[in-house]
Automatic annotation (TrEMBL):
Function, as annotated: Involved in the breakdown of propeptides of storage proteins in protein-storage vacuoles.
Claim: Signal is one of the keywords in the record: yes
PROSITE patterns: ASP_PROTEASE (PS00141), PEPTIDASE_A1 (PS51767), SAP_B (PS50015)
Gene Ontology biological-process entries: proteolysis
Protein name: Uncharacterized protein
Keyword Transcription regulation: no
Domain of life: Eukaryota
Domain (Saposin B-type) ranges: 317-357, 381-422
Active site (catalytic residues): D105, D292
Length: 511
């Protein structure tokens, strides 16, 4: 689940369709996803090789037949797409099945779900928990395990049980019962756990990944899986994972394949990155990249991300929200401080935070946990609350130095400009999206282009709309880097095939 991702953008929901694909393709597991349309307030906050049913032809009659056969035998299981940022679905563990929603993550290799023995982490109480005593196929292991992701961590111990994915059952599968999920990341998550689809080389505790056992136990015809993500809210199903092949209904033209250069993540070589058709130069001699279904955005070297964000007019979210607080609420904060209002109550009194009796609490976090109808506002509400609390401290300090009110506000604006954005997320003017440049990535000698509407995440509509750049900075030094992480934004635009049998990954324009 690649590093450097924006925490709230990771928290995602989907709806999983479980289906054993139509004859004559036994051993092909098709998992369609049903996508929930974004509502008026919503917006922000994973694989593939040979032709479907053994045919790589784009013959229209064959495609129509394949689709009809699939629809006949498909079982639809509810799956949600949380704010167009992540896709996850349902699996079953144990006998009888205990159901869990999981992210299918090509950036990690372990399966974990919360344990019924998780007592001290609040996150466990917000999600389904595995009860070993209720499964007839459970086998004890007990080996301790811990995993750290880019925005959270879990720890617990290994257990053994059957795992159902689609209509196939993987027997004797090692997985982690999480007994600790510290922090808020997993508490506000809409998914229960994570099912890693990466190579065994990065599997914690040397556990055999679920995908390896699917192949070993003969549950799929080919060691291939593919991803299709629907990025159009409200238009049909939300996406599909096919284990054992690909569906030609979900891509146009042919796939461009490149060899996997390093096991662990699905790493491959990538060439130049172009902004508006012009080379950025940094990757002209080559960069490494991974396709990661567990990452919402795209991360890359600061030198290129800076160029991209400059061209699209992106500014740090924290800096922008800080300036907005100073502009809209600065004078009110000064007035309340001069009136000797208790500093810890000021941000709640201006409506940017709630007050818990001791200090301000982000209204955004509360709404994510308690009020699903307002969950999409969490990222920005939290930023505004935090910015307000910082501004109060800064202004109080400046007033204590007998600075004039104008100089105080000028100084606070200067401090806002110096604020780094945690995780590197940046906002843009929604009115400028149509005029932003295309961004292209060179893979296998072919340019894969993202249009502005594909790389910008939008929250809300009309004057209240907020837009986030899909690019964040992360510098990984040689010999591992420079490294790009092509997350859901890229995989949504390009149907992605993970060919484990031939150690290659392929991309084609998504249909």
């Amino acid at each position: 689940m690649g590093t450097g991702r924006v925490a709230l953008l990771l928290l995602a929901t989907t709806a999983l369709l479980q289906a054993l694909l139509a004859a004559p393709a036994e051993g092909l597991v098709r998992i369609p996803l049903k996508k929930r349309p974004a509502d008026g307030n919503g917006g922000l906050h994973d694989a593939r090789r040979r032709g479907f049913l053994g045919s790589s032809s784009n013959d229209a009659a064959a495609v129509a037949l394949n689709k009809a056969e699939a629809e006949e035998e498909g079982d639809i299981v509810a799956l949600k797409n949380y704010l167009n940022a992540q896709y996850y679905g349902e699996i079953g563990i144990g006998t009888p099945q205990q159901r869990f929603t999981v992210i299918f993550d090509t950036g990690s290799s372990n399966l974990w779900v919360p344990s019924s023995k998780c007592y001290l982490s609040m996150a466990c109480y917000f999600h389904e928990r595995y009860k070993a005593g209720q499964s007839n196929s459970y086998k004890k292991n007990g080996k301790p395990a811990s995993i750290r992701y880019g925005t959270g961590a879990i720890s617990g111990y290994f257990s053994l049980d059957s795992v159902k994915i689609g209509d196939v059952v993987v027997s004797n599968q090692d997985f982690i019962e999480a007994t600790r999920e510290p922090g808020i990341t997993f508490m506000v998550a809409k998914f229960d756990g994570i099912l890693g689809l990466g190579f065994k080389e990065i599997s914690v505790g040397a556990a055999v990944p679920v995908w390896y056992n699917m192949v070993k136990q003969g549950l799929v015809d080919d060691p291939v899986f593919s991803f299709w993500f629907n990025r159009h809210a409200g238009e049909g199903q939300g996406g599909e994972i096919v284990f054992g092949g690909i569906d030609p209904n979900h891509y146009k033209g042919n796939h461009t394949y490149v060899p996997v250069t390093r096991k662990g993540y699905c790493q491959f070589d990538m060439g130049d990155v172009l902004v508006g058709g012009k080379s950025t130069g940094f990757c002209a001699s080559g960069c490494a990249a991974i396709a990661d279904s567990g990452t919402s955005l795209l991360t890359g070297p600061t030198a290129i991300i800076t160029q991209i964000n400059e061209k699209i007019g992106a500014a740090g979210v924290v800096s922008q929200e800080c300036k907005a607080v100073v502009s809209q609420y600065g004078q009110r904060i000064i007035d309340q401080l001069l009136a000797e209002t208790r500093p810890s109550k000021i941000c709640s009194s201006v409506g940017l935070c709630t007050f818990d009796g001791a200090h301000g609490v982000s209204a955004g976090i509360r709404s994510v946990v308690d009020d699903e109808a307002e969950e999409s506002n969490g990222l920005f509400n939290e930023a505004m609350c935090n910015a307000c609390e910082m501004a109060v401290v800064w202004i109080q300090n400046q007033l204590a130095q007998n600075q004039t009110q104008d100089l105080v506000l000028q100084y606070i604006n200067q401090l806002c400009e110096r604020l780094p954005s945690p995780m590197g997320e940046s906002s843009v003017d929604c009115n400028r999206v149509a005029s932003m440049p295309d961004i292209a990535f060179t893979i296998g000698g072919r340019k894969f282009t993202l249009k502005p509407e594909q790389y910008i995440l939008k929250e809300g509509e009309g004057p209240a709309a907020q837009c986030i750049s899909g690019f964040t900075a992360m510098d990984i030094p040689p010999p591992r880097g420079p490294l790009w992480i092509l997350g859901d934004i890229f995989m949504g635009a390009y149907h992605t095939v993970f060919d484990y049998g031939n150690l290659k990954v392929g991309f084609a324009e998504a249909a």
